[in-house]
Amino acid sequence: MKLAMIGFGQAGGKIVDKFVEYDKRHDSGIVRAAVAVNTAKADLMGLEHIPKDQRVLIGQSRVKGHGVGADNELGAEVAEEDIDEVQGAIDSIPVHEIDAFLVVAGLGGGTGSGGSPVLAKHLQRIYTEPVYGLGVLPGSDEGGIYTLNAARSFQTFVREVDNLLVFDNDAWRKTGESVQGGYDEINEEIVTRFGVLFGAGEIGQGGEVAESVVDSSEIINTLAGGGVSTVGYASETVENDSSGGGLLSRITGGNEENELDTAHTTNRITSLVRKAALGRLTLPCEIEGAERALLVMAGPSQHLNRKGIERGRKWIEEQTGSMEVRGGDYPIRDSGKVASVILLSGVTNVPRIKELQQVAIEAQENIDDIREESEDNLENLVNDDEDELESLF
Q: Which residues of the sequence carry a binding annotation for GTP (predicted)?
């Protein structure tokens, strides 16, 4: 699937930058164009792989290149005011060569949280290609203002995109891990999962063609209907024998050996499908009730087979209760592992979102109380008790 990726804000820019690096490393052909948009000049300068002429600094008249300070209302205003500057970078994208736009943002800060829904709405108005969002939720330890930003942005963003893919930092941060180290590892996890998902349908490394092709239309159909999506992933290291069989198999003609290999391959695939679905999802949720699903098995072609994928697909059908479960393979010749990626679209039983909203409501009430108290305290401080002083005007 060929994408035009637009990273909005610090987190969004870093993730898209990582996607571009991943694309070059794996020759996966996913990122047809990449743009980074930010209100902070330093964040744009820190990117390594997005071309410099595709890095857009907005809000200079308002914030002078220093960011919006976690104020997502200001982030939204700046995005509205400078949308033409963003469009200038998008104009260089060969839109006729892409399957969809992907707007990537961290939802806890100011620029990405406020600006990404604005950009998504703008793209929907101009282009016929689907516009997807990839939103990253802040960890619960990052503070009330970030939770409040995320809850408000999530509510807006999901309405402006064709589907919102979500990654929850709270489910992935390790205790005792440094902030920078944690984010680097999280970004790698994001790019690995979505890289395999969006890589499906493109010709794999080494030019191999899939047996059960998952093309971009199947990804689009799985994401159709809007709502929220999550992605599961599991992998296992394998011996990469590109000849397609073991030594005994090649000497004897190996019918019995081939049958054992086939059974082992099928069992490995079904095991990885279960691990991907029931393990740590990008957004933890109950998979029962997911409206649509897509299974992609990636790895050396000799470790993939139609029988295993079909069994895995049927198992997902049973677990989700959905009749719309697609599946296929993505052969990668030089890979040393087999990976299962499951896209669950239209999920609704998501406790984390309800928790996020509740914490945000409490944070909003606390902020309102603090502001009122602050105004009262200031009034008490500057006014004299006897009301004898007169202000200048």
A: 10-14, 110-112, 142, 169, 187
